[in-house]
Structure formats: structure tokens, C-alpha cells
Design brief:
about 240 residues, alpha/beta, 9 helices, about 35% helix
Length: about 240
């Protein structure tokens, strides 16, 4: 899939901002489930984020989140979302925040301008077709970004969302180890990286949520952790 987009001026060099205005985006309907306002200026908030899904384990994760009344942010891979459209619809219906993790999870820093745009917009478009709502942020695969990737994201009107702490669940694998690591990372306003493609992560979630709540944390989405204000287009947050 190739995406055609024209600049108002010439592309000078890779990584240099384009002179065209941001492309128009169609209005989309509101989420079917309205989240209650969360005041993270007062509350001890932490955002749990899940990459690379949806997977066969995601429905069980959604069951756990629903049981605990928790909303999180999912960074979906487009080709995975296409395989599990009903799961994506459920995420949206239950009030979770959905963002894009590109279409096929490449290293964006290895791609040219058109390829970066294809990946980001392709991931966005899959979610829009399924939920009616276009994601407003992107997480670059592997957390890899540079001035070139940032300039394309700026042109597309999207911030690049990274994380403040990683559960390293893909490495730890076991539920008990993942729970211990994740709980140890907890900090106010933290953005924790996890993966719903790791079965141990899904198995660890009841324990993680219980302990975080016992320690006074309110689990929120990325936008809520940002007090409702996302970074500007092309900005990388948290900064590395």
C-alpha cells in the first residue's frame, strides 16, 4: 500500500521539516464509552501501555482490565489489528485508548520518507476503518526514532510516544518475574511499556493491578497521564 502526499515545497534533506500544512483528517465519531475525568495533578497516576497486539491473549487481558475498572493505552500493529477486528472494536467499546504502532512493525530509522509515511498512515487507517476513529499518536517500533522520523511524524500531525520504564516482559516471560519487575518500576506519572503478545504479561496483570492499587496508584491512559494534552506533532515524549 502506497500513500500519496504532496508537499507545498521541496523536501530539502531527510530529517528536515516540510513546508506543507498538515493533511486534513476526517471527523470521526466519539468513543462509545465515555471515560470518567481523571485528575492526575492530584492523583498518583501511572499509565500502562501495551504494544504489538492485538494477539490471541488480548481478550483475556481485556477481561482483567474490565473486572478492575481500568483503562489503558494500546499501541496496535496494523496487520495484527486486521486479523482481530472484533478485539479492536471491543477495546474501543470499553473505553481504552488506541494508538498506532505502525502497520508492520519495521525499524522506521531504516526507511525512506515515503516508507515511514506508509507505515504510520497505514497503521492509522486500519484502526480508523475498524473503530471509526483515527489514532492521534504513534509509538515507533523498538522506540527507534531520529530527526527524519520526527519530521515525517510532524508533517502527519502526530507525536511520538515512548516510555519511561520497560517491563522487559518479552525477555522475562514468566508471570511472576514480569509482575515483580513492573511493580518495581512504578512511579507517579510513569509510562510503562508492556506487550499483550506475551502470555506471561496477561497472566501477571491481576497481581500487578492489585498491588498498584494497594500502593495508591490510579491506572490511566497516556492522554490522561498528560493531563489531557498530548505533545505537539513530531515531538518525542518522554524525551530520551
Amino acid at each position: 500500500m502506497r500513500w500519496q502526499w504532496r508537499f507545498g515545497g521541496a523536501l530539502v534533506t531527510a530529517g528536515v521539516l516540510f513546508s506543507s500544512a498538515l493533511p486534513a483528517q476526517a471527523a470521526t465519531p466519539r468513543a462509545t464509552t465515555a471515560a470518567k475525568p481523571v485528575n492526575c495533578a492530584r492523583l498518583k497516576c501511572i499509565a500502562l501501555t501495551f504494544d504489538d497486539g492485538p494477539s490471541p491473549y488480548t481478550p483475556k487481558l481485556l477481561d482483567t482490565l474490565a473486572k478492575n475498572g481500568v483503562k489503558v493505552t494500546f499501541f496496535l500493529v496494523g496487520e495484527m489489528a486486521e486479523r482481530r477486528k472484533s478485539v479492536v472494536r471491543r477495546m474501543a467499546r470499553e473505553g481504552h485508548e488506541i494508538a498506532t504502532h505502525t502497520y508492520s512493525h519495521p525499524r522506521l530509522t531504516d526507511l525512506d520518507t515515503d516508507e515511514i509515511a506508509d507505515e504510520i498512515q497505514g497503521g492509522q487507517e486500519v484502526v480508523r476503518k475498524i473503530t471509526g476513529k483515527r489514532p492521534k499518536m504513534v509509538r515507533p517500533p523498538y522506540g527507534l526514532t531520529d530527526e527524519h522520523v520526527q519530521s515525517v511524524a510532524q508533517y502527519l500531525g502526530l507525536p511520538l510516544i515512548l516510555w519511561s520504564a520497560s517491563s522487559r516482559d518479552w525477555e522475562l516471560r514468566r508471570a511472576d518475574a514480569i509482575a515483580k519487575k513492573t511493580i518495581s518500576l512504578a512511579r507517579r506519572d510513569g509510562i510503562v511499556l508492556m506487550h499483550d503478545i506475551v502470555p506471561g504479561t496477561v497472566a501477571a496483570m491481576p497481581r500487578i493491578l492489585k498491588v498498584l492499587k494497594q500502593r495508591g496508584y490510579t491506572i490511566v491512559t497516556v492522554t490522561e497521564a498528560r493531563r489531557g494534552r498530548l505533545p505537539g506533532p513530531g515531538e518525542t515524549w518522554p524525551a530520551r
